[in-house]
TrEMBL record:
Its main location: cytoplasm. GO terms for cellular component: cytoplasm. It is an enzyme of class 2 (transferase). Its EC number is 2.1.1.193. Residues 10-171 form the Ribosomal RNA small subunit methyltransferase E methyltransferase domain. GO terms for molecular function: rRNA (uridine-N3-)-methyltransferase activity. This is Ribosomal RNA small subunit methyltransferase E. The lineage of its organism: Bacteria, Pseudomonadati, Pseudomonadota, Gammaproteobacteria, Enterobacterales. GO terms for biological process: rRNA base methylation. Keywords: Cytoplasm, Methyltransferase, rRNA processing, S-adenosyl-L-methionine, Transferase. Belongs to the RNA methyltransferase RsmE family. Specifically methylates the N3 position of the uracil ring of uridine 1498 (m3U1498) in 16S rRNA. Acts on the fully assembled 30S ribosomal subunit. It catalyses: uridine(1498) in 16S rRNA + S-adenosyl-L-methionine = N(3)-methyluridine(1498) in 16S rRNA + S-adenosyl-L-homocysteine + H(+). It is found in: Cytoplasm.
Length: 178
């Protein structure tokens, strides 16, 4: 490699994070750290228990702010590609999108874990719910769209901790960490 060429620091694992929006700086923290950990794409989501209520103008400003956070996170971690922060959408619309990757929904009562997922995996669509979790109807809906419920462990985690823990575990198992 020539000294003028940048190192490729992109993960071989493509993770599309669907994160139900959280209040305050929690969403910013989740975006920043997820990108540092190698997430490829982030879609902010609205769900039944989403505590965030923004009008269209404020939401657009938030998306722009989050994209700036994404750029800064890439600079911090030495990434070559800045992940897109997509426009916010409803949970069901996101779940219904076509994707060839493995679809995962973190659920505290699931029986499967990341370690039980089959190898190899190159693409993952990762759903992280709000504080309080997804409603029973939303969990049933994710199953209709072929999402696999997985468990991270015995403790209930806050939404921002859940996202980062899951991304790290996925990168260790299928990506470039560890």
């Amino acid at each position: 490699m020539l000294s003028g060429e940048p190192d490729d620091r992109e993960s071989p694992l493509h993770i599309h994070l669907g994160q139900v929006m959280s209040r305050g700086e929690k969403m910013e923290f989740t975006i920043q750290k997820s990108i540092e950990l190698g997430v490829s794409l982030i879609t902010p989501l609205f769900s039944e228990r989403c505590g965030v209520k923004l009008d269209a103008e404020r939401l657009q400003k938030k998306i722009q702010q989050w994209q700036k956070i994404a750029i800064a996170a890439c600079e911090q971690s030495g990434r070559n590609v800045v992940p897109e922060i997509r426009p916010a959408m409803q949970l069901e619309a996101w779940c219904a999108e076509q994707d060839s990757g493995l679809k995962l929904n973190l659920h505290p009562r699931a029986s499967a874990s990341i370690n039980t997922l089959p190898l190899p995996v190159e693409r993952i669509r990762l759903l992280i719910g709000p504080e309080g979790g997804l409603s029973a109807e939303e969990i049933a809906m994710t199953a209709q769209y072929q999402f696999t419920d997985i468990l991270l462990g015995p403790r209930v985690l806050r939404t921002e901790t859940t996202a980062l823990t899951a991304i790290t575990a996925l990168q260790v198992r299928f990506g470039d960490l560890g």
